[in-house]
Write a structure and sequence with these properties.
By secondary structure, the protein is α/β, with parallel strands linked by helices. 31% of the residues lie in helices and 22% in strands.
Length: 214
């Protein structure tokens, strides 16, 4: 199976175009106050409009007000929402939209199977290396062994990934997708075309290696 790739924290049409040229499956548009990759709705809409068919737009929110989610749905028409805070399952399910739920893994005190149990309706579960209550995109990884076969939904690995270690993450966790932001940047919010290409090649190498395993 091919591991899908999401480039998160895209802040320009130019970086989105590079991601598309590399064959990335999804891009992340961040609407989180305080994030160095934060976009306004109008900025996110411009990037969203630039995407060709078959490349998914994922809008990332963290503990948002209901009105913000509704505005994002109306103005951006994303393929997926990504809830990256402490949102309840009831809140995530409220909008009738397909969504990814992020699970904070750093210093997690709740076993994975219990932490994910309320989010059975999530389209996918994303496991990130940040601590609960903290912003993502900090370049922190976690023990990928904790999530292999953790749920029936597609699993996404995030947090501290780069071309140097994404192959290990794929071999250990066997995720449906990997999600990278800081690992392909020159500075926060500015993507590096060389790092982007290296990351995609590293995923392809890992997929080839795992497909040859008995």
């Amino acid at each position: 199976m091919r591991t899908r790739i999401k480039f998160c924290g895209i802040t320009s049409i130019e970086d989105a175009a590079k991601a598309v040229d590399l064959g990335v499956d999804a891009i992340g548009l961040i609407l989180v106050p305080g994030s160095p990759r934060e976009l306004t709705l109008s900025q996110a809409a411009a990037i969203r409009r630039s995407l060709p068919p078959m490349v998914a737009a994922v809008v990332l929110l963290r503990n948002p007000e209901t009105a913000i989610v509704q505005q994002a749905l109306e103005q951006l028409q994303p393929d997926l929402l990504q809830f990256h805070g402490e949102e309840s399952a009831e809140f995530c399910n409220r909008f009738g939209a397909r969504y990814i739920k992020a699970i904070a893994m750093r210093d997690a005190k709740t076993p994975v199977d219990i932490a994910i149990r309320p989010y059975a309706a999530a389209t996918a579960l994303l496991f990130d290396g940040h601590a609960a209550g903290a912003l993502g995109g900090q370049g922190q990884s976690f023990d990928w062994r904790l999530i292999r076969n953790a749920a029936t939904q597609p699993l996404i690995v995030a947090g501290g990934l780069s071309a140097d270690n994404v192959g290990d993450a794929i071999c250990i966790a066997r995720p449906f997708a990997v999600d990278v932001s800081s690992g392909i940047e020159s500075t926060p919010g500015r993507k590096d075309s060389g790092k982007m290409a290296d990351f995609v090649r590293a995923v392809a190498r890992a997929d080839a290696a795992t497909s040859n395993e008995p």
